[in-house]
Design brief:
Number of domains: 4
Order of helices and strands: HEEEEEHHHHHHHEEHEHEEHHHHHHHH
Number of helices: 18
Mean pLDDT: 81
CATH class of the largest domain: Mainly Beta
Structural class: alpha+beta
Number of strands: 10
Shape: flat
CATH topology of the largest domain: SH3 type barrels
Radius of gyration: 28 Å
Distance between the termini: 77 Å
Strand order of the largest sheet: 4-3-2-1-5
CATH architecture of the largest domain: Roll
Length: about 475
């Protein structure tokens, strides 16, 4: 084992230098940034740092100095691998083998498997040299797949768990005792059957009890239930236009007809609203969108498709503005979450979107600017980290909404939709966020600078009016 470890380290050092010539940028604002200049033109420089790139104009830079830095402080293992992959002779099996070893030791297991297969394709003698590696990689893939099935089963996602287990039975059966996989399959099928039956029965009883005594009216995309006929008719008159208005505010120029209509419940009794929705005591609205996963066969490939199985909105008829405020707010949540297939997004962004959808907002720019100058607002770097609703919800909602408004108005709806598409694809939120808006800000600090300037400009305009 020690001998093999030594050989792996030797091959890594042979391929990759431990240090490289790097650049230190001394900025006029007093900051110092280490990295590697990868592009330079008449406008400025593009600096490579660990985790990404940052561009600086010549006006921001006081001077640049050279230094020696460890290569892994600038480039990630994946970046090093991709760089070396371009530089090796693609017909050299030994080079592919060494790349595979590097990927293996840096947990790039899919890439390691690919490089070992490349080496074998060029020279069959590498079958023996890579045997242990490939066996381990295949076993790890099988274990990871089964752990995923177990997690899905434990979280009640039985349909997806069943699909994953069928894949394991097809591709990894040799790594497990056949009877164990079959027992697990029986358990899953039982869970799935029970969940389908109990779920449908429970929802049917719940809806029937809730809707008894309610006035119902339907529109193209909504089934409206209200405990008084006047509210039901008023909502039916306005809801379709409101849906289109909210979509346009969020940058969606066209919204298709919903295949599954939204059930919209209107309550004049606060205690009944809180009981049925389970919302916190301070809330005046609640929404939930349910998704299902189906298989879709395209040619020889089996793809997963995420579809909406149900939509629900509940609102408390607190004032005559409950449509333009609470209902619009919940529609903002629903429209954006459907577009990203229910992917997880930060709390400030989620609530900022919903408040932007409203016709009435907590604070205008003049009042918000006063909060900022009196240090009664959040530092943006702290706002981005909030995971639970804070006690002072007014400033949280107002600031979150105004930052989203800044993204839509100042940075453009096109970029907002681009971000939504990258979230939908499964990309990390903040990685996509800072990349999409890199022309406007680079991090939380520069986001705060750009946003405060926007608030000052809007407040000045309001004052003139």
């Amino acid at each position: 084992m020690k001998k093999k470890f030594f050989l792996v380290i030797f091959s890594i050092l042979f391929l990759f230098p431990s240090k490289i010539t790097a650049d230190i940028l001394y900025l006029k604002n007093g900051r110092k940034i280490d990295g590697k200049i990868v592009e330079k033109n008449e406008k400025g420089v593009l600096l490579k740092i660990a985790g990404g790139t940052i561009d600086f104009s010549h006006q921001e830079i006081e001077r640049i100095e050279s230094s020696q830095m460890p290569v892994d402080e600038i480039f990630s293992p994946k970046e090093i691998y991709l760089k070396q992959k371009k530089e090796i002779d693609p017909s050299d099996p030994e080079a592919h083998f060494k790349l595979g070893e590097y990927c293996y030791t840096h947990n790039l297991l899919d890439d390691a498997f690919f490089e070992f297969e490349e080496a074998i394709g060029l020279d069959k003698s590498y079958l023996k040299k890579t045997e242990e590696y490939r066996k381990f990689l295949k076993q790890k893939e099988a274990i990871d797949c089964l752990n995923n099935v177990i997690d899905l089963n434990n979280s009640g996602k039985y349909e997806l768990a069943k699909i994953r287990l069928d894949e394991i039975r097809k591709n990894f059966s040799k790594f497990y005792e056949k009877n164990k996989l079959e027992k697990f399959n029986i358990v899953l099928e039982r869970n799935l059957m029970t969940a389908r039956y109990e779920g449908k029965l429970r929802e049917a009883i719940s809806d029937k009890a809730r809707e008894r005594g309610f006035f119902q009216t339907d529109t193209t995309n909504f089934k409206i239930f209200a405990d008084n006929e006047k509210s039901a008719k008023l909502m039916a008159k306005k809801i379709e236009d409101l849906r289109d208005e909210v979509a346009k505010k969020l940058g969606f120029t066209f919204l298709r007809k919903w295949a599954v209509p939204c059930k919209l419940y209107i309550y004049s009794d606060l205690s009944k609203f809180l009981e049925d929705s389970g919302a916190p005591a301070w809330a005046s609205g609640w929404q939930k969108i349910f998704f299902k996963v189906t298989q879709k066969i395209v040619g020889d490939a089996v793809l997963f498709e995420v579809l909406v199985s149900e939509r629900r909105i509940m609102v408390y008829e607190e004032t005559t503005m409950f449509i333009s405020k609470a209902t619009a707010h919940e529609l903002g949540h629903m429209i954006f979450l459907e577009f990203i297939d229910g992917k997880s997004i930060p709390l400030w962004f989620n609530e900022g979107i919903a408040v932007c959808a409203q016709r009435i907002r907590p604070l205008n720019e003049r009042n918000l600017l006063k909060k900022i100058k009196n240090n009664d607002s959040y530092k943006v770097v702290n706002l981005l980290e909030i995971k639970e609703y804070p006690e002072d919800q007014t400033i949280f909602y107002a600031q979150s909404a105004n930052i989203v408004k800044f993204l839509l108005e100042e940075c453009g709806a096109f970029n907002f939709i681009k971000l939504a598409k990258r979230i939908k694809s499964g990309e990390d939120f903040y990685a996509a966020f800072y990349d999409v808006y890199r022309g406007y800000f680079r991090d939380a600090l520069s986001l705060e600078d750009a946003w405060v300037k926007y608030v000052e400009k809007k407040a000045k305009y309001e004052f003139k009016l």
